[in-house]
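Data deposition worksheet. Section B asks for the primary sequence of the deposited chain exactly as it was used as input, without tags or linkers unless they were present during the calculation. Section C holds the resulting structure in token form. Section D is free text for depositor observations; keep each observation to a single sentence. Incomplete worksheets are returned to the depositor.
Section A, Depositor: J.P.
Section B:
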Amino acid sequence: MKDTDTIVDTARFPRLDQFDFDSDFNAELDDFPRDAVPSFLSVLPEDQYRVALGAAWLAYNEGVMLGERDFVIPAAEMFADNPATRDRAAQFDRVVVEEELHILGSMRACESVRLQRGLQDLRFPHWHVADALNDVQDSAARRGYGDLAMLAICFTFEATISSSFPHLSRDRVIQPSHSAWVARHAEDETEHTRLFLRTMPDFFSSLSYTDQNRFVGAINSTLVAMCVPGASIWPTVGEYFGLRYENEVVADLVAPVTSLERVPVVSLNLHRALLRQPAPEPKE
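Section C:
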């Protein structure tokens, strides 16, 4: 995994100018959808609840930066260089550029909400999902296939992250710049998902039988890692406001797959995608 921050050249991203998180800020509007945060925060007075929604927006953007810097960008660079996927190198290079755009935009969003909502001292010191995903890659590296596991982590992350976006869709009454930024992120990630789903069957078929098994095993380990106990950021948000978080099933801001019961289904669908098999029709 990469430990250093991605260096982003701001001159490469003129379209970021359309996202002015400070000038467009309206203190009377929410920073994050209310139905995408757990109900234990609703006991807060309205003014503090608005600040809590700002904390959720902060966490969302920090999660974006972490996942894309540490997992997606390194893997996209590997795919661009891999003989089995080199014919799509330009598209993976574009993924890297767009992920850098997301990182820079999320940096600006974090700076803005900290200032506007007085959250300068709120920190999320420990991202359990990142630790768990690092463990997947480190365990594979000790067995000699760390790069393969990195690619599996990225494929799983990109193929499942879109499930987070319906909770942050345009029809929510939140800050216009926040809604526009999520829409930009969702649009790019949808294209990234399509690229990975188009590319992965050729890559998978190029692997040896042993490496295919390792790749599928890393997918399963990644899905389980997304469900590690304590993966949610909500306990930290609750503690900041003097509240105790009770484990409540809500859309997680970092891990798209939050239920262990869902892992076999998601894993099967991803395996079908690798084999170019259509997903089963939902039962009536």
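Section D:
Confidence is low (pLDDT under 50) at residues 1-10, 251-256.
Residues 41-274 form a domain with the Ribonucleotide Reductase, subunit A fold (CATH 1.10.620.20).
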